[in-house]
Amino acid sequence: MHYKRTPLELLHVLNATSISAHALKNATAIVNDVEHDERVKAQECRRCFYYSKIGGQAITSSNCRICNTELIHGNTNIDELCMDCAKKHKLCKHCCADMELKHRRKL
Questions:
Q1: In terms of DSSP bridges, do strands 70-73 and 60-63 run parallel, antiparallel, or are they unpaired?
Q2: Could you give the CA distance from residue 71 to residue 74 in angstroms, rounded to a whole number?
Q3: CA separation (Å) from 93 to 44, 72, 75, 98, 103?
Q4: pLDDT digits (tens, 9 = 90+) for 67-107
Q5: Is the pTM above the cut of 0.70?
Q6: Are 66 and 89 in contact (CB under 8 A)?
Q7: 80 neighbors 65 (Cβ within 8 angstroms)
């Protein structure tokens, strides 16, 4: 199958440039950890804190993957851990990564 492309327009260039600039800004924020205190307070790793989290609009419940406590979320982009377990084990509450991105031998 041959896909016929439409001629390039300025709008496409502007849109692609905006997307690339936004990605670079996010990458710079992750590397420099520009909102470190807020990120640690939110108990999230750099990736989860600085990248946008899109979820469907539905109240969703899940369970903490350590203590099995029921968690209620305002959308479908759910956290993996409760705040207490995330802090106790120094893990990202959203994805379970080590907060300092250190490789571990045990939980």
A1: antiparallel
A2: 10
A3: 6, 13, 15, 10, 17
A4: 999 999 888 888 999 999 999 999 999 999 999 989 988 88
A5: yes
A6: yes
A7: yes
